[in-house]
Amino acid sequence: MFDDKEDLRMFNKLYSSVKTYLRRGRSECNSGDGDPPIYVNVRMDDGRTVNTWIDSLQAAFAAVQ
User: Fold this and answer.
1) How many CB atoms lie within 10 A of CB 53?
2) What is the rounded CA–CA span in Å between residue 20 and residue 9?
3) Which among 54, 4, 1 has a CA at the least distance from the CA of 24?
4) In the predicted model, is pLDDT for residue 9 greater than 90?
5) Distance CA 28, CA 36 (A)
6) How many structural domains are present in the chain?
7) Model confidence over 23-39: pLDDT tens digits?
8) What percent of the chain shows pLDDT beyond 90?
9) Which residues, in sequence order, are CB contacts of 58 under 8 Å at separation 6+?
10) How far apart are CA 41 and CA 58, in angstroms?
11) Which domain holds residue 51?
């Protein structure tokens, strides 16, 4: 955005962390075994799942993707 390489670097690092630590469920959205994928709220200090419902911030995340 606005050709700022540092902002892009920070976004890519954050986005990678979100996909690694907040995503739960099977690896493919429409196929495979297990629960459907969802991004959950986690505790910042240890990564444990806080809840599994979708709030407004999680719903808006699809637009970022």
Assistant:
1) 8
2) 17
3) 54
4) yes
5) 8
6) 1
7) 888 888 788 888 888 88
8) 14
9) 39, 40, 41
10) 9
11) 5-64
